Amino acid sequence: MLSALACGAAVFPGLFYTFRKGLKHTFTHWSDADVVSVSERLVSAIHASLATAAGVTVVTSCRDTMTDSHWLVNSFVLFGAPYMAHDIYAMYLSHYHTQRVRGHSGSYSSHSLQTVKAFLSKDWMLVLHHMTLLLIFTPITLFFRRGLGDFFVGCLFTTEFSTPFVSIGKILIQLGLDNTRLHRINGIIVLLSFFMCRILVFPFMYWMYGRQFGIPLHKVPFHLPLQCNVGNLVILAPQIYWFILLLRKANRLYMRQKRG
Question: What pTM was estimated for this model as a whole?
Answer without folding.
Answer: 0.92
